[in-house]
């Protein structure tokens, strides 16, 4: 049976099992053999990383045409005004073209997250705020580029959900097995063929 693992990837860890340039890798967390990341998080990003040995499911999940949501908490410089929030929600144009519209919420306070190690560098003269962003595409460093495009560089970035799967109470470096249905329900993959008489989910 295919295996599905939710990991809370810590800051500074590569989304791969081989270390490069002395950076930490996934090899240190005792993960089952034969699984691979479904997508990636940058080394300086944290949070939910899905790993599995279900190749067709990875391909389906990452296919942009399916628009599976990915939700992030981003700590940004200063407090975005309504115009900046509207520009983010509309999808700013980056160097590789316009981004899709996305969900954006300015949080009232700081979310309940484990402290980052090392902590971000605070500047007394520059306040920070937190955004919750829900994207349906996954370009390279997209959240960071989007917030920078509207004048609010990202200082800390934590992915908290992929599809229907949430990070929950996993602490950095901790992982747990999950079911595929807890992530998303595809219409069909090689490991999810509907039985005779069953309707496919769309």
Task: Write a structural description.
The protein has 202 residues and is α+β, with helices and mostly antiparallel strands. The protein folds into two domains: 1-65 and 164-202, 2-Layer Sandwich (Alpha-Beta Plaits); 69-162, Alpha-L RNA-binding motif (Alpha-Beta Plaits), CATH 3.30.70. The chain has three helices and eleven strands. The strands form two sheets. Strands 1, 2, 3, 4, 7, 8, 9, 10 and 11 form a nine-stranded mixed sheet that branches. It has a two-stranded antiparallel ribbon with strand order 5-6. A hairpin with an 8-residue loop joins strand 2 and strand 3. The chain is globular and about 50 Å long. The two termini are 23 Å apart. Mean pLDDT is 90; it is low at 188-202.
CATH fold call of the largest domain: Alpha-Beta Plaits
Name the beta content range: 25-35%
Compute the number of structural domains: 2
Mean pLDDT: 90
H and E string: EEEHEHEEEEHEEE
Which CATH architecture of the largest domain would you pick? 2-Layer Sandwich
Which structural class fits the helix and strand makeup? alpha+beta
Low-confidence stretches: 188-202
Looking at this structure, what is the CATH superfamily of the largest domain?
Pseudouridine synthase I, catalytic domain, N-terminal subdomain
Radius of gyration: 18 Å
Query: Looking at the structure, what is the overall shape?
Result: globular
Largest sheet: 9 strands, mixed
> What is the level 1 CATH name of the largest domain?
Alpha Beta
Specify the number of helices: 3
Q: Could you tell me the number of beta strands? A: 11
Helical residue percent band: 10-25%
What is the rounded distance between the termini? 23 Å
């Amino acid at each position: 049976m295919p295996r599905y693992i939710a990991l809370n990837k810590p800051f500074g860890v590569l989304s791969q099992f081989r270390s490069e340039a002395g950076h930490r890798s996934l090899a240190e967390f005792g993960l089952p053999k034969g699984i691979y990341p479904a997508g990636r998080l940058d080394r300086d990003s944290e949070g939910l990383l899905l790993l599995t040995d279900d190749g067709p499911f990875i391909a389906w999940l990452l296919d942009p045409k399916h628009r599976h949501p990915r939700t992030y908490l981003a700590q940004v410089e200063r407090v975005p005004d309504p115009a900046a929030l509207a520009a983010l929600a509309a999808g700013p144009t980056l160097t590789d073209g316009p981004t899709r519209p996305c969900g954006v919420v300015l949080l009232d306070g700081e979310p309940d997250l484990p402290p980052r190690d090392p902590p971000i560098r605070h500047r007394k003269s520059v306040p920070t705020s937190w955004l919750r962003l829900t994207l349906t595409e996954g370009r390279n460093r997209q959240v960071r580029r989007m917030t920078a495009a509207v004048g609010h560089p990202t200082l800390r970035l934590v992915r908290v959900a992929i599809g229907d799967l949430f990070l929950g109470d996993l602490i950095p470096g901790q992982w747990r097995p999950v079911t595929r249905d807890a992530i998303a329900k595809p219409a069909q993959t090689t490991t999810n063929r509907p039985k005779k008489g069953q309707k496919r989910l769309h």
